[in-house]
Specification:
This is Class III extradiol dioxygenase subunit B-like domain-containing protein. By secondary structure, the chain is α/β, with parallel strands linked by helices. It has helices at about 15-20, 25-40, 95-105, 125-135, 165-180, 180-185, 190-195, 200-210, and strands spanning about 1-10, 45-55, 60, 65-70, 80, 115-120, 140-145, 220-225, 230-235. Helices cover about 35% and strands about 20% of the residues.
């Protein structure tokens, strides 16, 4: 059963070494992520599942200890998902889960088993929900760390240029996450999310599926659009 969830943005710029001189611009987002992880720790889960945008269409699992890297951004920084060490072949974390691994290392997360799940942008809503239900059924006390960004079309200089639909879309997502509104997340327009480059759509719908019947309350911790991309942090508990 899902007992708690934290929702965090997933840009590699959240990692100060990647952001370099621009790092202070996301200090508030980092602080919100730290607070969100504190809510997860306080829930004392039996298992933590990290869900984020993946590189393949279907859900792809990443065992505890899977490594990730930010070398693609010119930074000599590697991370691991959870404290477990050991070889996991050539499998590498997608950037969303590498950011999550960095957040977990930063918070000192060590007591609860961790696994990762990458979900593709094209994954249908019902498949996302079903995946979430399966996750929630894995242990008596499951927590989710859900990584994903809102639209990337909030300004002229945004990665997706300016789209007048982006701000209302992000506002509704922020409201739904802050209210733990499962129904609203499940009915997000998948085509619109794709057009607005909202990478969090599928992970948020996995969360919605996992939270069905859990009767959790929500709290919105952070909402902003630096660089023209919507970043949100929230907790459900």
């Amino acid at each position: 059963m899902l007992v708690a969830a934290a929702v965090c943005p997933c840009p590699p710029l959240l990692v100060p070494e990647v952001a370099a001189g621009a790092a202070p611009e996301l200090d508030a987002a980092r602080a919100a992520c730290t607070d969100a992880l504190g809510v997860l720790a306080a829930a004392r889960p039996d298992r933590l599942v990290v869900v984020g945008p993946g590189e393949s269409t279907g859900p792809e699992t990443y065992p505890e200890g899977t490594r990730g890297s930010f070398r693609g951004f010119g930074v000599d920084l590697d991370v691991g998902l959870g404290p477990a060490a050991g070889p996991h072949g050539e499998q590498r974390l997608p950037y969303s889960l590498a950011v999550a691994a960095w957040l977990l290392e930063r918070s000192g997360w060590s007591d609860t088993p961790v696994e990762g799940l990458g979900v593709g942008e094209a994954l249908p809503s019902e498949r996302c929900a079903r995946t979430g239900r399966d996750i929630a059924a894995r242990a008596e006390r499951v927590a989710l760390l859900v990584m994903g960004d809102a639209s990337a079309c909030r300004t002229l200089k945004a990665p997706g240029y300016l789209d007048e639909r982006a701000a209302p879309f992000d506002a509704e997502v922020a409201r739904a996450l802050g209210a733990a509104d499962v129904a609203a997340l499940m009915t997000l327009d998948t085509r619109l999310a794709h057009e607005l480059k909202a990478s969090g759509r599928a992970p948020w719908q996995v969360l919605a599926g996992a939270a069905e019947g859990a009767d959790l309350g929500g709290s919105l911790l952070y909402e902003d659009a630096p660089y023209g991309v919507g970043y949100l942090a929230a907790t459900w508990s």
